Amino acid sequence: MPKSQIQDAVRAEGATEADRPGSACPLGTHPLFQTPGALLPGYADHQNPAADGFLAAEYMHAHTFKLPVWHREEDIRLADAYTAALAKVTSHAKDLL
Hints:
5 helices; 0% strand
């Protein structure tokens, strides 16, 4: 099931802040790893890893959702509602295809 379809279904269940990472990127593609000399001049001549050399990071980025960070006692009900929305969508994934 495409991640965008899962996101739409979760949002339809009221988990409106569920999101796909957009500001983050797989570690191997981060500019710090591709051009470290820009920030760390001592590494200007450093051999950079291939951008596609971090397959696990790419997999995680492709299969990850962002959720809000809940940290207060009164957030428990909201966290439970998000858990219920995710559980409902995943348990009915075949029906949504």
